[in-house]
Amino acid sequence: MATVNMDRLLQACVSMGGSDIHLTVGRPPVLRLDGRLRSLETKVLEPDDTVALMKSITPDRNQQELQEEGGTDYGFAFGDQGRFRVSIFRQKGNIALVLRLIPTKIMSFDDIGLPDICAALCRRPRGMFLVTGPTGSGKTTTLATMVNYINENFDRHIITIEEPIEYYHQHKKSIINQREVGVDVPSFGEALRRILRMDPDVILVGELRDLETIESAVRAAETGHLVFSTLHTTSAAGTITRIIDVFPVNQQEQIRIQLSSNLIAVLSQALCPLATGKGRVAAYEFMVVTPAIANLIRENKTYRIDSSIQTGKKLGMQLLDEHLWQLYNAGKISLDEMLVQSRQPGMLQDKAKAKIGAVKGKKKQPAKKELEDMGQILRT
After folding, report:
1. Which one of 80, 211, 227, 342 has the fewest beta carbons within 10 angstroms of its own beta carbon?
2. Which of 132, 107, 117 has its CA nearest to residue 269?
């Protein structure tokens, strides 16, 4: 009987430019290529296959955690071709795996299209910089770029707390120590409790996932450290609301004051397939906390933040929908993708109709089908 070889799957992912490998019973191995799932032409996986594939790459400690908890996460190196972040879990009594390829090359600000002001913000001595977006939107890559910029240009002590470690950084101009939750330290909370004794200048927290972690990260920013972290939110204003809502009502006024003083920027991003079908491009919403925005946070008027972002273009600020429109107008992403990722698809629909109408006036053939497709997207 044919068997599926893990090394060949890992090599296929690297060679084909995939981002993820999905291994689950009842399907052949599946790669995510340019944001879309593609089955490999090999056998349909059976329960014994996924168990064998899991055991071929999983340390004993993680196999024990899988037995006890029903799931485990870790990272490993595939030679010098890349690292993989692995999530193993049970489903319907069977083992399933998802492996995310972490590229070895850390990209520059220009490579990923970040605003120029990001470099200036990375030079700040203190404060909190949040990168947000849904799973798979490139938050880890963006943070790695920022940490690498600091590492290459400044003499800082950088400490990261990750679960698991994804990008491995080498000591450059800075000293960088990377702590893995579950390997080097039992929890994010424990790591953050001890971190201020380690003389850090820059702290990266993999994710602000609970009240304790948020409190500790804000305190670290308040006591004179530059703190980077992530949240699964889709807008700058929504990020602030999410953080405040984690706290009990009697503490919310205090956290608003702390955020208004310590938050320096929020970068929300979405990763969009290119219209060519090959590759992806990031769309950004970017907010720098100006005195006006700090005042809105203090006064619980986050609903007015979008207006302040629109008037802050000279600082590189922009709303997500503005960037999506730029990408669509430049032909980089499709109409479908722009509307799916948009926060206010109705407004972009109107702009697209005006554009299509203008083009239609110059053509003999009307652009009817594109308008019909747009209506269908907005109805779903």
Report:
1. 80
2. 132
Bridge partners of 272, per DSSP, are 281
Three-state SS annotation for the chain:
CCCCCHHHHHHHHHHHCCCEEEECCCCCCEEEECCEEEECCCCCCCHHHHHHHHHHHCCHHHHHHHHHHCEEEEEEECCCCCEEEEEEEEECCEEEEEEEEECCCCCCHHHHCCCCHHHHHHCCCCEEEEEECCCCCCHHHHHHHHHHHHHHHCCCEEEEEECCCCCCCCCCCCEEEEEEECCCECCHHHHHHHHHHHCCCEEEECCCCCHHHHHHHHHHHHCCCEEEEEECCCCHHHHHHHHHHHCCHHHHHHHHHHHHHHEEEEEEEEEEECCCCCCEEEEEEEEECCHHHHHHHHCCCHHHHHHHHHCCHHHCCECHHHHHHHHHHCCCCCHHHHHHHCCCHHHHHHHHHHHHHHHHHHCCCCCHHHHHHHHHHHHC
Per-residue pLDDT at 221 exceeds 80: yes
Residue-wise over 284-320: b if at least 16 C-beta within 10 A, else e?
bbbbbbeeebbebbeeeebeebbebbeebeebbbbbb
Res. 356 pLDDT band, cuts 50 70 90: confident
Q: Which residues pair with 270 in a beta bridge?
A: 283
State the sign of the Cα–Cα–Cα–Cα dihedral 21, 24, 30, 34.
negative
Q: What distance in Å separates the CA atoms of residue 22 and residue 100, rounded to the nearest whole number?
A: 9
Predicted local confidence at residue 372, as pLDDT = 57
Strand partners, 284: 269
What is the predicted pLDDT for the residue at 135?
A: 85
Burial class (CB in 10 A: 0-12, 13-18, 19+), 350: exposed
Provide the whole-model pTM: 0.84
Question: 79: buried, middle or exposed (CB in 10 Å: 19+, 13-18, 0-12)?
Answer: exposed
The length of the chain in residues reads 380
What does the pLDDT average to over 153-159?
A: 97
CB 324 within 8 A of CB 281: no
